[in-house]
Amino acid sequence: MRSYYSDVEAFEYWCQDQGLIPFPATIATVCAFLEAQGKIVAPSTVRRRLYGIRKIHRLLDMPDPTLHEDVNLALRKVRRLRPNRPTQAKGMTRDYLEKFLEVQPNNPWGLRNKAMLSLGYDLLTRRSELVALRTKDITWRRDGTLQVLIRRSKTDQCGNGRIAFTSKRSAQLLEDWLEYRGIHIEPLFCPIYHGKAINRGLTDMVVRRLIRKSAEKAGFDPSITSAFSGHSMRVGAAQDLLSAGHDTAAIMRAGGWKSVDVLARYLEYAEFNVWA
Predict the structure, then answer these.
(1) The whole model's pTM is what?
(2) How far apart are CA 125 and CA 232, in angstroms?
(3) Which of 3, 65, 75 is nearest to 34 (CA)?
(4) In what order do the strands lie in the sheet with 138-140?
(5) pLDDT digits (tens, 9 = 90+) for 200-237
(6) CA 133 to chain centre
(7) Cross-referenced Gene3D superfamilies, in alphabetical order (predicted)?
(8) At residue 275, does pLDDT exceed 60?
């Protein structure tokens, strides 16, 4: 929703500068906007802004100009003029995970950070999925591992959810964290203030900062540190699964992927490593 808001806002400001009416927009206005945006932002951003214009017209119950063939041609023109490869976050593979766990401090923040890193890797979560977990989503299994219900994701807006499982180490690290945190806090991971756990959730930006700060503490070069993102746990775990010999269907099941094409992009570098 934040992306839609910023994209529609960009369209509205552009129309004001051009002396055009944004709502309802004409086909010619949308085409001109896309071509103008194609000169200053990535094609993926242009496409997202087109979706934002489409969404706002439908919400306002106005005629939708975005489905016209001229608009499709304008978008294709933008793609041809500025071809680019999507930037892939550096994968937090198991080797990186081990180093990141080693540098966590011996305090409440360290307990939380270790549990977040290990759990996020095991579950192949997006950062938003990790911070959205609730204590009630965790089920302890007899073998010392965890069953986790990931209730909602970017590709599961209806909240059908998916079931994922963890290692014994993640279960132990989470148990250590929960022993400190207490039982009366709903979010699985929460802020800590003056050494006391606070009953509210974390923002997803905390995950990205945690991964990059861990890479920095582990002594990696800034060029490597900056390549990590909040998506790195998901990317790295998928690459490790491929390197371990798991097939595409198993990896898609583990990470909740709906598209083989998206997964293939995640696995590019892992495939290279396998044959190297």
Answers:
(1) 0.72
(2) 9
(3) 75
(4) 138-140, 146-150, 162-165
(5) 999 999 999 999 999 999 999 998 999 998 889 999 99
(6) 14
(7) 1.10.150.130, Intergrase catalytic core
(8) no
